[in-house]
Amino acid sequence: MRLGATGDEVRGRVAHVRDVYAETRATVLEEGVLDQGIKRLCARYLAEDDDVVTHAGDSGRFDERERAALEWAHAIEWDSNRADDALWERLHAQFTEAELVELGYFIAFSLGQRHWLATLGIAG
After folding, report:
1. What are phi and psi of 58, to 5 degrees?
2. Cβ neighbours of 17 (radius 10 Å)
3. pLDDT tens for residues 49-87?
4. How far apart are CA 28 and CA 123, in angstroms?
5. Which of 60, 66, 104, 105 lies at 20 to 30 Å from 98 by C-alpha?
6. Residues in contact with 62: Cβ distance below 8 Å, sequence separation at least 6, in sequence order
7. Which residues contact 45 (CB under 8 A, 6 or more apart)?
8. Do residues 110 and 117 lie in contact, with contact meaning Cβ atoms separated by under 8 Å?
9. 112: pLDDT strictly greater than 70
10. For residue 96, what are the contacts with CB-CB under 8 A and spacing of at least 6?
11. Contact 74, 101 (CB under 8 A)
């Protein structure tokens, strides 16, 4: 059974869910302490954008900050064993604690939303 044509329509059926999502969208997805470019890059990676996935480790294409973020996105989505001490060292060298919390939340939230919408038959 399809619940709605868009994620916003589905969330709109429950006022507090709609309101919490609006706050998350405003404070984390669209704003926040972390550069939006890093968030967009990770979102493209998680969506398996060939242009990003193919070049994720390319130092000529992405700087160390971007590569560390992509590596963490990979660990969160596909292989948690990659989140070893070496990755954490790289992440802490490139990001503040607040940025890491926000990036991790952004990645987790984005993954959950994508999977949830797919189960509803709604394109991401």
Report:
1. -85, 110
2. 12
3. 999 999 999 999 999 999 999 999 999 999 999 999 999
4. 21
5. 60
6. 41, 55, 56, 70
7. 52, 53, 56, 70, 73, 74
8. no
9. yes
10. 33
11. no
Q: What is the distance between the alpha carbons of residues 54 and 57, in angstroms, rounded to a whole number?
A: 8
Q: How many residues does the chain have?
A: 124
Mean pLDDT of 103-122: 93
Q: How far apart are CA 102 and CA 10, in angstroms?
A: 25
CA atoms within 13 A on the CB side of 35: 10
The burial class, CB within 10 Å (0-12 / 13-18 / 19+), for 77 is middle
Other Cβ atoms less than 10 A from the Cβ of 68: the count is: 22
CA distance 55 to 60: 9
pTM of the predicted protein model: 0.90
Q: Are 17 and 116 in contact (CB under 8 A)?
A: no
Distance of CA 84 to the CA centre of its chain: 19
